[in-house]
Automatic annotation (TrEMBL):
Protein name: Indoleamine 2,3-dioxygenase
Family affiliation: Belongs to the indoleamine 2,3-dioxygenase family.
Origin superkingdom: Eukaryota
Lineage: Eukaryota, Fungi, Fungi incertae sedis, Mucoromycota, Mucoromycotina
Pfam families with a match to the protein in the record: IDO (PF01231)
Ranges in a coiled coil: none
Protein source organism: Absidia repens
Biased segments, Polar residues type: 581-600
Length: 607
């Protein structure tokens, strides 16, 4: 592997930048952006943000000089662009104007990111130290920017920043582990694993503090909506993603590395080529947590699958994910944890709609991470951090080494020191599993419960103003949409709603933020660019899928996320190595019989 610095990782601050992020772009050329940031929350609240953005000049990103400036500019454009798209009490915009889209796209390219908000922008590059000499911890941190202007949002980011700080020694310790295993340096390895285990314990302490100052209601209804991207967002009126005006107006060929003439393309084809679909910001894009998985060889599989090596031919066991739909169900297409649409909808014309969102060249080694969603998250990590993970995949030797020690354990040739190393490895996995336990609890409280309960006020802060010509019948049809979302989603209530509200274009537009609703609308607004594109290219298959049983297009709000997160947690625990050798195998990868293993130690380890 390269040195830490070459991966843009600091031995002191880890994936956080070595020096705190810039608070402003000092070059007066960028004053229009910084001025927008000064008034950002106020403009959004006053409903003036979009108009003001339309008046902003197109700035040239090449005037940015340092990587720190690029990062600051990226954060500004994440703030402005997501607020522009989602608005406040406004209909989502399907188009991002060129004065945001063009520089954002170029700056993202420079940083090796996608032009969409990501963990790096709001967590790694969005903090300030209150006491510049003090530590990067929750007692000394504040944010540079938030969408909602709330302390809850600051806390949400800062807890995650503090987690990155608590784990800051780990990227270096992981590299040392690899080297110490190569050199047979047990003492060094023991020290590294101890550092990682203790850091993980600190990380868990910080994660637990999320509850202190981030209210789940505020998170779900006021913060999360702005972090959404434009993948699987048909209900928000973005079935094809977002139009990045002025971006990639030409066709680039990988073979010739040249831009081809596009004058032969029709207007519709050119429009289609400007759409991009990107996932939104999520701590699933944290390179730190991903690094633990890679280092310890945690195997992540497609949701609902658990391979076994117990038979001569590899088998895949379907896990009992009671709340998930069967893979053949049309609803499954909207499950972002299983199905990844292509980033460029235009590609679907050539690939007959096959998923290319997570496609990366086949690596020369066996990936431990076969979960498409988790892998796709890597393209939202800064390029050099992604490189660290990719290189670590080839270099990681901790798990193979532990498997070797396990075989010594079985033959009785293991030394006490080696036994301690297995114990430490298990302790690290245990802490990572505890992290995922706590995280599952958080998601259940901050997302699933909130979606079930519904907003305190009917629109949850994301209603669109009632249209003047709306009839009383229309508005009464709206209310059940809200209550069906917010209640315990009783099928009876939904059916009633379906009777009251026939599935026609007169049905109320989605008045809630899309990730919170059970939707009955195809999500293509009359007269919108996507309506035009979908009529020109019916092969894109934008027709809605209605579940014949419930009559709704899909239920989000947590139904898909929990099986994914619980599986990820269980996969972590599955990697522990059973130290009791009385007829035991490794708890890892040993097929179904391992899961019915009955020893007390094994039971403890599994917990
Ligand atoms: C209010 C707090 C949080 C909520 C509501 C939340 C929610 C979620 C959700 C919904 C996912 C599924 C992926 C997605 O749809 O984006 C996810 C995944 C993930 N989150 Fe969080 N998250 C929270 C805090 C954190 C923090 C502080 C971290 C620390 C870095 C974190 C790390 C992860 C990771 C690593 C994943 C990928 C799944 C895995 O590795 O098991 N999350 N989170």
């Amino acid at each position: 592997m390269l040195s830490l610095e070459e991966y843009d990782i600091s031995p002191v601050t880890g994936f956080l930048p070595h020096d705190p992020p810039l608070r402003r772009l000092s070059d007066p050329y960028f004053t229009p952006w910084e001025d927008m940031m000064d008034d950002f929350n106020g403009l959004l609240l006053a409903g003036k943000l979009r108009a003001k953005i339309h008046k902003m000049p197109m700035l040239n990103h090449k005037k940015l000089n340092t990587v720190q400036e690029y990062r600051r500019a990226f954060l500004i454009l994440c703030m402005l662009s997501h607020s522009y798209v989602w608005g406040k009490h406004e209909e989502a915009s399907e188009t991002l104007p060129a004065n945001l889209a063009v520089p954002w796209n170029a700056i993202a390219e420079y940083l090796g990111l996608c032009p969409v908000v990501c963990h790096a922008a709001v967590v790694l590059w969005n903090y300030r130290l209150l006491d510049s000499e003090g530590p990067i911890d929750l007692g000394n941190l504040t944010t540079l920017a938030t969408y909602s202007g709330s302390l809850d949002e600051s806390w949400f980011y800062l807890v995650t920043t503090a987690i990155e700080s608590a784990g800051s020694k780990c990227p270096a310790s992981i590299l040392s582990c690899v080297n110490n295993i190569q050199d047979g340096n047990y003492e060094g390895l023991q020290a590294n694993l101890t550092t990682i285990r203790d850091s993980l314990a600190d990380i868990n302490d910080v994660l637990h503090r999320m509850f202190e100052k981030c209210d789940p209601y505020v998170f779900y209804w006021k913060i999360r909506p702005y972090l959404a991207g434009w993948e699987n967002m048909a209900e928000a009126g973005l079935p094809l993603g977002l139009i990045y005006e002025g971006v990639n107006d030409s066709i680039w060929s990988a073979e010739t590395d040249e831009y081809a003439d596009i004058s032969h393309l029709t207007e519709g084809e050119r429009l289609l080529r400007q759409y991009r679909r990107y996932a939104g910001g999520s701590a699933a894009q944290s390179s730190l947590i991903a690094a633990f998985d890679v280092a310890f060889g945690v195997e992540h599989h497609p949701v609902g699958e658990k391979p076994t090596t117990s038979s001569s031919s590899p088998l895949v066991i379907k896990l009992d994910t009671a709340t998930t739909t069967s893979p053949s169900s049309p609803v499954d297409k909207h499950d972002r944890y299983r199905h990844l649409p292509s980033t460029r909808p235009a590609d679907e014309l050539d690939h007959s709609g096959t998923s290319s969102g997570a496609t990366t060249p086949r690596p020369p080694y066996k990936r431990t991470n076969r979960n498409a969603f988790l892998r796709a998250m890597r393209k939202y990590m800064p390029e050099k951090h992604r490189d660290y993970l990719e290189d670590l995949e080839t270099a990681a030797n901790i798990r193979p080494f532990m498997m070797h020690l396990e075989s010594l354990l079985h033959t009785g040739e293991i030394s006490d020191e080696e036994r301690d190393l297995i114990r430490l490895y298990n302790d690290c996995l245990h802490q990572l599993k505890l992290f995922r336990d706590k995280h599952v609890q958080i998601v259940s409280l901050y997302i699933v419960n909130q979606a079930r309960k519904g907003p305190n006020i009917a629109h949850g802060g994301f209603a669109m103003e009632k249209k003047k010509n709306e009839t009383a019948a229309d508005s009464s049809a709206k209310t059940p949409v809200v209550s069906a979302t917010s209640s315990t989603s009783s099928t009876e209530q939904q059916q009633q709603q379906q009777q009251q509200q026939p599935l026609n274009k007169k049905a109320a537009h989605n008045v809630l933020y899309p990730q919170t609703s059970l939707e009955t609308h195809p999500g293509i607004r009359e007269g919108s660019p996507s309506a035009k594109v979908s009529s020109l290219f019916p092969q894109l298959g934008l027709a809605k899928h209605v579940d014949p049983k419930t009559g709704v297009v899909r239920g989000t709000g947590g139904t898909n996320v929990m099986p994914f997160l619980k599986q990820s947690r269980d996969e972590t625990a599955d990697m522990k190595i059973a130290l009791d050798t009385t007829g035991q195998q490794s708890s890892s990868n040993s097929g179904p019989q391992a899961s019915v293993s009955k020893s007390w130690t094994d039971m403890l380890l599994r917990r």
